[in-house]
Each structure stands twice: as structure tokens, then as C-alpha cells.
């Protein structure tokens, strides 16, 4: 396993060559980073939880026909995915003001937005992922207008679906980020959801207390990050290996 070819190492994940052409293995690390790597820490068990939560979300997206890169989970930290050409644009959808939007526009965190808002950020660590417009995306050739339309419609579908999914678990989906990629199948190409969807990439607040259940716990040094991620997994009905009730018999972990 160690001699696999490493394709890419990011802040929280590593990509390895997959077992078949056109596949990759996505490995979730325990590293937590914020403010473009100025704050780095290791949160033991975060990778395992994000692997499980992201698997759960992508499986649900598959069930309702939202195209994505996920094939199957391989083990505690890894999943098999389709190789895509990542579009270097982060698509953020916001339902409630928080984070950079609150700062930029002077909106109090927690203010409901009149409607869901989509923003684009150019994926570039050296530049701190600057916000960009559709004009920048097409002018610099990161994606064409059709691809931008596809990304926006995927983002809206993911938002509608995830908002309901989390609401059913007593969690408010404040905002989230997705990444999209080009999946080539023969002569055809389509835009699919890639990367991960987890409490690292979403803002999730408890519906009653507004308690943060996401990476803001790390960014804002609130502590309790792992416990919050565990609570998200629990509320979504995801059983993790080490959560097996004491005294219960062996369980099949799929
Ligand atoms: N986000 C992300 N990766 C990034 C930047 C943002 O996953 O590199 C997510 C973040 O977790 C939040 C949403 O996108 O759910 C909006 O983030 P915001 O622009 O408010 O950024 P922040 O101020 O948190 O850096």
C-alpha cells in the first residue's frame, strides 16, 4: 500500500493512483488547517470522520442523481473516486450570513439571506483564494459559460438537498463549499461534484442552540471539534467502528 504513486497532497487529503485507469484513491488526513495554512494542527480521528460523513453525503447525492466522483469507501480513511479534471474554482453557497460574507458586507452572523447566494473563489493558496466573478472565470479560461451554468445548477441542487438532509438531523446548513471537475467518458464530458463535503467544508449550526458543529470550532479556537464532527455523524445515523455499543456482537462495517 505504501508504494502507491502519490498524485497530489493537499492540506487535509492525499490523492493516490487508483487500481484502474480513471480512478484515484482519496485519503483523508487528520490535519486541520485554517487561514491558508497559518494555523495547522492535528486532530486525531478527524480524517476518519470526514471520510465517513463525505461518503454518506456523496452516496445520498448519487441516489438522487447528482453526478459526482464518488465510487465507494475502501477503508477508514480512504475512498475510491473517479479521476476528474478539477476546475480551479471553489463554489460557495450561502443561506445565512457568516464568515467572510459577514465581514465583507457588515452583516451580523446568523442573519438569514433573502435568498441563497452563490459565490466563486479562485483556488490559489498563494493568493489566498480570492473571490472572483464569472467574468474572471471565463476571461482566464478556468471554465466556460456552460460549465459555470453546470456548476451553479449542481451547487443549487446540492444546497436544496443538503439543507433538507441536515434539517432532518436538527442541523442548519449555513453555507458550504463544493469543488467541481470534468469527468471524461469516451467522447463525452460532464461536470460533476468532486472533493469532499464534510464539516470541514460546511458551516453547520445546531437548529436550536446555534452551536457550531463545523471547522469554525478550529478556526476560532473553540475546542471540541472532534466531538462536534462525531455529533454530526451520529445525527446523520452514521455508525463509526469505534462507536459500537459496548457488549454488542460483531457488526459488519460496510
Ligand atoms: N470554505 C472551504 N474552503 C475554503 C474556504 C471556504 O471549505 O478554502 C467553506 C467554509 O467552510 C464555509 C464556506 O466555504 O462553509 C464559506 O466560507 P467563507 O467564505 O465564509 O470563508 P472563511 O471566512 O470561513 O474563510
List descriptors.
single chain, alpha+beta, Phosphorylase Kinase, domain 1, D-amino Acid Aminotransferase, Chain A, domain 1, 6-stranded antiparallel beta sheet, 5-stranded antiparallel beta sheet, binds uridine-5'-diphosphate
Describe, in short, the structure shown.
By secondary structure, the protein is α+β, with helices and mostly antiparallel strands. The protein has six helices and 13 strands. Strands 8, 9, 10, 11, 12 and 13 form a six-stranded antiparallel β-sheet that branches. The chain has a five-stranded antiparallel β-sheet with strand order 1-2-3-7-6, covered by helices on one side. Strands 4-5 form a two-stranded antiparallel sheet.
Walk me through the topology.
Layout: E1 6-9, E2 13-17, E3 23-28, E4 31-34, E5 39-42, H1 46-63, E6 70-73, E7 78-82, E8 85-96, H2 99-105, E9 112-122, E10 131-132, H3 134-139, H4 145-167, E11 171-185, E12 188-194, E13 202-206, H5 216-219, H6 225-235
Bound molecules: uridine-5'-diphosphate (UDP).
For the record, the count of structural domains works out to 2
What is the string of SSEs from the N terminus onward?
Answer: EEEEEHEEEHEEHHEEEHH
Task: Give the beta-strand count.
Answer: 13
Shape, per Cα inertia axes:
globular
Gap between N and C termini: 20 Å
CATH architecture of the largest domain: 2-Layer Sandwich
Unique ligands: uridine-5'-diphosphate
| Low-confidence runs of at least 5 consecutive residues | 244-248
Summarize the amount of helix as a percent range.
Answer: 25-40%
The amount of beta strand, in percent, is: 25-35%
Structural class: alpha+beta
Radius of gyration: 18 Å
- Largest sheet: number of strands, sense, barrel closure: 6 strands, antiparallel
